[in-house]
Amino acid sequence: MISPQAGVPSADSGLALLTDLYQLTMMQGYFEQGMTDTAVFEFFVRKLPDNRNFLLAAGLEQVLEFLERLRFAQEELDWLGRSGRFSKEFIDHLAELRFTGDVHAIPEGTVFFPNEPILRVTAPLPEAQLVETRLINLLHFQTLIASKAARSALVVPGKLLIDFGLRRAHGAEAGLLAARASYLAGFHGTSAVLAGMAFDIPIYGTMAHSFVQAHDDETTAFEHFSLAQPDNVTLLIDTYDTEAAAEKIVSLAPRLKQRGIDIRAVRLDSGDLADHARKVRRILDDGGLRPVHIFASGNLDEYALHTLKQRNAPIDGYGIGTRVDTSADAPYLDCAYKLQEYAGRARRKRSEGKATWPGRKQVYRFYDEHGLFAGDLLTLEDDCGEGQALTQLVMQGGRRLAPPLPLTEIRQRAAMDLQRLPMALRGLETGPVYPVTVSRALHDLARAVDEGKV
Questions:
Q1: I need a labelling partner for 316 at 20 to 30 A (CA). Which of 2, 94, 178, 398 fits?
Q2: pTM > 0.85
Q3: Taking Cα atoms as reference points, which of 441, 454, 439 lies closest to residue 347?
Q4: Could you tell me if residue 39 is left (phi over 0), alpha (psi between -120 and 50 degrees) or otherwise beta?
Q5: Is residue 273 part of a domain?
């Protein structure tokens, strides 16, 4: 059962078991050996996907709610007992488990870059271990979608952008969280009604081809829809002949006007959108319907929007679905949640190609004289820097320190961060590598760990 308000399973069904088996098998090993000292794990992205110049942090709110709700329901404990994999003593221990740790994070809506931890968990080792799978699941997905959606917002600033992707999202939760992530990143709303209720996102909708096809003629379909939705008349005009339908709109508009109904927009969903938009715009303007907007949809993403912009298509807004809600051109991030400290000692992974920086870290951001990002410093938490410290304490002792921020405020932060990106990083092509400097203190600690001096 998915809770739409949080985008997480309900507290009495599947909350703690939404994990990988090896988290539980490791936990039993920790339990048997009494390994409950404080552990520090950090979530970060190792490298950017192709054609990405930045990432946008998202998903923290769902993480915090998951951690606050964390517990094993009796039915889950019973199932684990029947599995025969775990001792009765360990299962009894799980019955009392709650998350009691601290969380530091980069705020949602913040632009970040590879190797910069966007979340740090400090908690007894078994707790920090158990939550790995769900934390990655939540942070990875929303960050992936927000980062994709932000590119559309940068390509066509000022245009109406609506999430249309629920029907082709990879499941219900993915569709809801994609609506949240895309709105956070700069979209103006979603077609997903439940996302509107759950996250207070503005909802938008038009009509489907089936509505037109169910009528004997197109004009009657347009009239009936207008009567049913007099305050939101957006008519889909490409079921048969797009330009002929636009002419019908011109003829219908005066009759609707007499009944106090204005046509707000027409929607194009197929064919050469730029060509159809120019022809429809001319028909509407010549028919005295200059205020009527043109809205387009159909396999769109930032690349298609860029092409339409280059062709000067007279389109006022876009419905963007499948390609953004699945991040079609970059469907995953090379991300990780790794142990950086245990029992007061810094730790680091040294695997080939996957080495990590040890210790608790902070990210400092610097700006140029125009207020644009100039570079970041990755360093140890206690190595004070001069820039803007991005990582903040958001949960202590298993309880968040502040109520959830309105999504509109997170969206404003994202918009501000995106506008502070250097121009070379805002485009769709691969730009210069953004400078993230690793501090001398962090280099020294890594060397000390490698040499067994820490």
A1: 178
A2: yes
A3: 454
A4: beta
A5: yes
